[in-house]
Amino acid sequence: MSASAPALTTDHTALLQLSTALLTQALDLLSRLPSPSSLSQPSALIPGSTIGKHLRHAYAHFTLLLDGMDGGAAVDYDARQRGLAMERDLEACRAVTRELIERLESEGSKWEMGREVTLSATTPMRQTFSTTYGRELWFAALHAIHHYSMIRVLAVAELKIDLSEDFGVAPSTLVHRAETEEAAAGHGESARL
Fold first, then answer.
1. Residue 92: CA atoms inside 13 Å, Cβ hemisphere, count?
2. Of 37, 128, 136, 187, which residue is most buried, by most CB within 10 angstroms?
3. Rounded Cα–Cα distance for residues 168 and 142 (Å)
4. What are the Cα distances from residue 142, in Å, to 19, 44, 75, 168?
5. Beta strand extents in the chain (DSSP E only)
6. What is the pLDDT of residue 5?
7. 145 touches 169 (CB < 8 A)
8. What pLDDT score was predicted for residue 4?
9. How far is Cα 65 from Cα 3, in angstroms, rounded to an integer?
């Protein structure tokens, strides 16, 4: 970390780790696709969807956030590009995902979590909101998980791919599941006493 980078808080570190872990999950998914064409195979269950389109959408949110921070802390997620090579080319998807992981690792800690950001959105009227870098990094990560849950449907139901149990599942849900399992195990323990 450079001398000019802010000291990372636990929250900052956790959000960056979550973001890079999610992108690493995408790389794992790409290695499990039965064929390169699986990336752009149209879904029968979610019309208009492909795994590549969902990965591009998640990628775009992280990229637009980092670009916006570099450009004076103004972010517009509606400015994302569509029809990128990563939607249909397996090697292009792997390459840009790896580049984004490296970029998050090298640039993601340049800004304080509380740094103000101007967010523009079409709702359908053009709106401008005040937010923070930390909130938007959290949003990009949770938005990716939302799209990963749709990818899960395509991958498991349509392509018969085995994915990890945490793919497309929110961290709060994973914590809840662990607590529930722990509580159930504790009840089973006390019932045997």
1. 13
2. 136
3. 9
4. 9, 25, 17, 9
5. 74-76, 116-122, 126-132
6. 44
7. yes
8. 42
9. 23
Mean pLDDT by 10 residues, the chain (193 residues): 45 88 96 96 96 97 95 91 93 98 93 93 91 95 97 97 93 89 75 49
Distance (Å, rounded) from C-alpha 29 to C-alpha 151? 9
Distances (CA, A) of 123 to 1, 126, 127, 128, 129: 38, 6, 7, 10, 12
Amino acid type, 183? A
Q: Which residues contact 122 (CB under 8 A, 6 or more apart)?
A: 78
Neighbouring residues of 6: CB distance < 8 A, sequence distance ≥ 6: 12, 109, 110, 111, 112
> Is the four-CA dihedral 168, 19, 137, 60 of positive or negative sign?
negative
- What residue type is assigned to position 19 of the chain? S
Round to whole Å and give the CA distance between 95 and 12. 25
The pLDDT value recorded for residue 9 is: 54
Contacts of 65 (CB under 8 A, 6+ apart): 75, 133, 136, 137, 140
Show the tokens assigned to 45.
Answer: 């269950």
Answer yes or no: are the C-beta atoms of 65 and 59 closer than 8 Å: no
